[in-house]
Amino acid sequence: MANVQYYDVILKPVVTEKSMNAMAEKKYTFLVHPDANKTMIKEAVERMFEGTKVAKVNTMNCEGKNKRRGMVTGKTAKTKKAIVQLTACSKNLSAVVPSGSIVS
What CA–CA distance (Å, rounded) separates 48 from 35? Predict the structure, then answer.
């Protein structure tokens, strides 16, 4: 396994309609490093966003899609997603929410 630091674990937030609706329940979705495990993801969120406490982490490995250009076939890169559930007493992650959206 590669030596992954906490600031290398979270690559970017996933901004979809489904993930934005989950933010009301304090569930945040991130694309994470493929070698990161749940403990590393929990530590990264708690260190990068002050005032947060992670209740649980769910991860999923997404296989690359088959792509074709003419006769040449290939695959896109594999990704890993993490859905992070925060505790009720922790602060919301304001850095994740896009500026134009409304989250209740």
Answer: 19
Residues contacting residue 65 through CB under 8 Å, at least 6 positions apart: 75, 76
Q: Are 7 and 46 in contact (CB under 8 A)?
A: no
Strands (E), 3-65: 10-13, 27-32, 54-62
Note the pTM of the prediction, 2 decimals. Answer: 0.83
Burial, 46: exposed, middle or buried (Cβ in 10 Å; 0-12, 13-18, 19+)?
middle
Q: How long, in residues, is the chain?
A: 104
Rounded Cα gap, residues 52 and 55, in angstroms: 10
User: For the segment 56-91, what is each residue's pLDDT rounded down to a tens digit?
Assistant: 999 999 999 999 999 999 999 999 999 999 999 988
What pLDDT score does 104 carry?
47
